[in-house]
Amino acid sequence: MSVEVGKTILGMDALGARIHKAARLIVDKGAHLIQDASRSFAPVGVPGNSTNAPGDLARSIIVEGPNETSTGYEAFIGPTVIYGRQRALGGPLEPKTAPAMVFTIWGITYVRTFVDQKAEPFMHPGRDTAVPAIVSMANAEVSLAILGK
């Protein structure tokens, strides 16, 4: 029995290139699946009860990447509005530069030195919802890469 080492090496290189391409595609598609799902969970303000236009938080959820790293690919998914993390995690709000915060809800003006905002998670539920579809898609993409398609 003889083995053509040169052809084997070429075949393995081609497989490596297909897997590399599949990995980038999986991260790209997976990040956008998380983005879409997270947008569906993002709280939506109500006109007159919000300082931002309704839907600003959901629209601000973006994907950066995929970016190649030394070990593969990565992407970052998250809101760009300054209050996104606060809405997701909740917690205390205190004035930073003034003695109190002033805001209007439903036409009533409030002055507060402290507000405990309730958490309204949207990124974690989005990720958790997207994972089964990502796993299925990743399995399919890797299978196609192995088969040479």
Relevant terms:
elongated; two-stranded antiparallel ribbon; alpha+beta; 149 residues
Molecular structure report:
The chain has 149 residues and is an alpha+beta fold. The protein has one domain (5-90, 120-147). It is 48% helix and 19% strand. It contains 4 helices and 6 strands, in the order ααββαββββα. Strands 1-2 form a two-stranded antiparallel ribbon. A two-stranded antiparallel ribbon has the order 3-6. A two-stranded antiparallel ribbon has the order 4-5. A hairpin with a 4-residue loop joins strand 1 and strand 2 (73-78).
Topology (elements, then pairings):
Elements: H1 5-41, H2 56-59, E1 62-68, E2 73-78, H3 84-89, E3 91-93, E4 101-105, E5 108-112, E6 115-117, H4 123-147
Antiparallel strand pairs: 1-2, 3-6, 4-5
Helix pairs in contact: 1-4
Percent of residues in helical segments?
A: 40-55%
Q: What general outline do the C-alpha atoms trace? A: elongated
CA radius of gyration = 23 Å
Number of domains: 1
Structural class: alpha+beta
In brief:
Helix 1 (5-41) runs antiparallel to helix 4 (123-147). This protein is α+β, with helices and mostly antiparallel strands and 149 residues long. The chain is 48% helix and 19% strand.
